[in-house]
Amino acid sequence: MDWGDGFMDAQNQGYGNDDEEDDHFSDKLEADKYSRKAGDLCNQHKYGDALQYINLALDMNVLNAGNWNIKAIILDFMGRYSEAEKCYNTSFGLSPHKVVCDNKARMLRYWAGKLIEEAKKKPDGLPTLYDAWDINKRAIDTLPGEIKAKKTLKIISVKGIRLIFTLIMKRNIKKTSKALKAMTNLSFSLLPECIFTKTA
């Protein structure tokens, strides 16, 4: 799987504090080695092993924003979306890079889509649809960019939620799922393709 520029940016992000003592330099090199190994293992779809190595890198330097981003990507591939979201938040808090926002938004959008599919299979899928809606909203709120673009997305979201609640009142789960999925896809189709850096 090719992560495009997002994974490379994650590997190149800083350590937080560049003024550390020289005696910690060997720890940085060791952490870099673990980080690269985690990336290699993830590319080989060995996510459990990759997670162990990225945790070793973070144990050596918890302030490395790039390694938090890599951990989030690994957890994303493992389907551990809630944990991945927390790691993206940590990465962004340490070093606010656009790539982290892009990766997080893409992950949230995918997670919402999975919940929509789950809702279709449940006898009462409404609570799952509510969760999907909330996650989709967080994806939109995560996106960087111009305020005008975000306002447009929020307008679409408001129109979409009216339709969804109308369908919910009629208890039509299948149509509600389709409406929510269509609204999510429409929201993201308005954004330039290039803002996303991690490809599925």
Describe the structure.
With 200 residues, the chain is an all-alpha fold. Helices cover 74% and strands 0% of the residues. It has two domains: 90 residues, Alpha Horseshoe (Serine Threonine Protein Phosphatase 5, Tetratricopeptide repeat), CATH 1.25.40.10; 91 residues, no CATH class.
Number of domains: 2
Shape field: elongated
Instruction: Please trace the helix and strand order, writing H or E for each element.
Output: HHHHHHHHH
Query: How big is the Rg?
Result: 19 Å
Specify the helix fraction band.
Answer: over 70%
- Could you report the average pLDDT, rounded to the nearest whole number? 74
Main pleated sheet: none
Topology of this protein?
Layout (H helix, E strand, L loop, with lengths): L4 H8 L12 H19 L3 H14 L4 H13 L3 H14 L3 H24 L4 H17 L4 H23 L3 H17 L11
Helix pairs in contact: 1-4, 2-3, 3-4, 4-5, 4-6, 5-6, 6-7, 6-9, 7-8, 7-9, 8-9
Keywords:
200 residues; mainly alpha; Serine Threonine Protein Phosphatase 5, Tetratricopeptide repeat; disordered N terminus
What can be said about this structure in brief?
The chain is mostly helical and 200 residues long.
